[in-house]
Amino acid sequence: MTTFHLSGFPRVGAKRELKFAQERYWRGEIAEADLLDIAKKLREINWQHQANANADFVAVADFTFYDHILDLQVATGAIPARFGFDSQNLTLNQYFQLARGNKTQFAIEMTKWFDTNYHYLVPEFHKDTQFKANPAHYVQQIREAKALGHKVKPTIVGPLTFLWLGKEKGAAFNRFDLLNQLVPVYVDILNALTAEGVEYIQIDEPALTLDLPAEWITAYKAVYATFAAQVNAKLLLATYFGSVAEHADLLKALPVAGLHIDLVRAPEQVYEFVDYDKILSVGVIDGRNIWRANLNQVLDVVEPLKAKLGERLWIAPSCSLLHTPYDLAVETQLQANKPELYQWLAFTLQKIQELRVIKTALEQGRAAVQADLDASQTAADARKNSREIHRTCVAERLANLPKNADQRKSPFAERIKLQNAWLNLPLLPTTNIGSFPQTTEIRHARAAFKKGDLSLADYEAAMKKEIEFVVREQEKLDLDVLVHGEAERNDMVEYFGENLSGYLFSKNGWVQSYGTRGVKPPIIWGDVKRERPITVKWSAYAQAQSDLPVKGMLTGPVTILNWSFPREDITIKESTLQIALAIREEVLDLEAAGIHIIQIDEAALREKLPLRKSDWYSEYLDWAIPAFRLVHSGVAPTTQIHTHMCYSEFTDIIPAIEQLDADVISFEASRSNLHILDELERQNFQLQVGPGVYDIHSPRVPSVEEIEHTIRAILAKVPTERVWINPDCGLKTRGIPETKASLVNLTQATRNIREEL
Q: Is residue 372 within 8 Å of 315, Cβ to Cβ?
């Protein structure tokens, strides 16, 4: 027998049912009982899919209404005390307030989950934080699944990773000092799960792939020795997203029932664990990309392991499948239009079937699944040998880039004087990051146009009407630099992908980014090239409506790459440079059309930063930063280049950010309490900056006084002449009334501060 298991499943449903239900609940359109019922049915469907694929355990405790780390804060009693909520009796409404904020409290900070595009809610630890077990959410899922006859394996994030992912708040202390208080609470949680009759519990410790201090590494021995002594269940310690080979001796010595390692991200680490004498779970199907596996090649890896380990070999995806779309089978349009490409892909439901085939082959031999293996091989060969993937002109252009092609014509200190002269902006210039609320009318117009129910002329008229509305509203609000609102864009990456060759698109390939926010990453399948201008007509139309400057809005090459499913046949560096050349053409066309402020968003710059600091530059930043510069290096010194970054930890890469050589950089900073400002000040950051002054991911409207306080905090760290005032991100997900109210307060607060200067 070979055990097949999973760490987690997409939570939001095949058609984002949970998202729509939650948003209806927030609007007061359905009752809590209705939402709970929908969630229960989605869990049942997920479990049945796993059972149908012959999984030996179905994943439980992975479902969440917002975020699994928020759930763990509730389970350990570590919710922020500032809300005044009782973690033992937390209502669903209060749970959502932790994630979204309320009238008196800002939402819990959000940041990237390792190097993925998933965002978790950052635990807030204080010196006097008191932990208390509340496993009810996990227990409920176990009981539901067992009642349906499923064999279950709960998965929760381990104590060291949980602590590591949090932040110290209040009086100075080291959150590591809380470990001894946290471990007994984990024991209580694990024993509560054990009491439900589970045999195995998976404890995720992905922090082991990071640069942990020595005391944190050493602590694993004591923590897991405590678990071994006080918890009756068999524990599977899981790592993913990178190699833990350097910790192999430590991990193999831990008193746990087994280990899980990621052989997709770090296949070489298997050699450090082949002599392991307990359960070894190997992640052999990619939990983060959508390419169909070559099952023969996977079997070439796992068959020798099976021969050595026997029943101690477990197979699994590399990590939770929450990072992949739900079901390829619903992509009927893609199948009809691109049948060969369709055969190259695998979403969540297809990936668990791949694991079913591997399990059967290991138990019964390859002959038992020969048809499946043949189909897999045929697809792999077709993809490898495809003549459609490569375009000679793209390769030649990259090869012929002149030396210093990524360098601006003059340094920042000279450029900014020229830009200030023609812009003639007041101190603390105000602007928006890019998007305005996407109303129902906008979405319907775009959808109708795509379906052919709306003519091109009528569609363009609708978009122009919206652009004019956005421009006029911003003028009324007295903003200094305007945006056109991006009504024509469904998504900041997908929109550009739709207008570049080498991209493929799904209709329902949604992946959770945070809470109810989903993204539908485009698929890079071939060489990327711009075929025609993408944004120019919209930005030029907006600029024609106002005497105030209007920013051209683009997405940068690193973010387009990072928020797409990338190719595997070339490096991500090469793909990014292809995209950079395409966006460079768009920048130059915008400038030629009279747009002299151009924002090139690099929201995801940090996302693919290697998990080990020693690899940051050599494996990523040494080419990612020049790729961004390549996009804007051809403009005149008078053209002002902006960029925007959000929901990642940027404090440790400030020098690299300055090397982007943009003129103005805006950051998401409101949820993180502006902590990036300390680092900007310490490193004498010279570029102009726009730290976000309020959180757009929360529905709450910040008061004038609140924004004034934030601006004063910014001015205490950054010279006034280098500060811009803006929200912390685009306004796409907000409603018109709350957007107007927030921007009214933003501009009033700015005027008040200007009067003080």
A: no
CB 6 within 8 A of CB 321: yes
Range of the domain at 416: 411-499+534-700+718-735
* Residues in a beta bridge with 235: 201
- CATH number, domain of 161, equals 3.20.20.210
Tokens of 280: 């070894």
φ/ψ of residue 717, rounded to 5: -115, -25
Contacts (Cβ under 8 Å, ≥6 apart) of 79: 73, 85, 87, 90, 98
* 115 and 151 assigned to the same domain: yes
d(CA 647, CA 606): 9
Tell whether the model's pLDDT for residue 613 goes beyond 70.
yes
Tokens 């005044």 — which residue? 84
pTM over 0.85: yes
Same domain, 642 and 694: yes
Q: What is the pLDDT of residues 13-44, one digit of tens each?
A: 999 999 999 999 999 999 999 999 999 999 99
How far, in Å, CA of 114 to CA of 207, rounded? Answer: 9
SS3 601: strand
- Any idea what DSSP says for residue 619? I
* Two structure tokens written together for 165: 């992912």
Q: Which of 253, 239, 316, 234 is nearest to 281 (CA)?
A: 316
Same-domain status, 339 and 446: no
Give the catalytic positions in this structure: 697
Q: How many angstroms separate the Cα of 186 from the Cα of each of 210, 223, 486?
A: 22, 10, 46
CB 425: neighbour CB atoms within 10 A?
Answer: 16
**Inter-residue contact 561 to 572 (CB < 8 Å):** yes
Taking the C-alpha atoms of residue 15 and residue 600, their distance in angstroms, rounded to an integer, is: 31
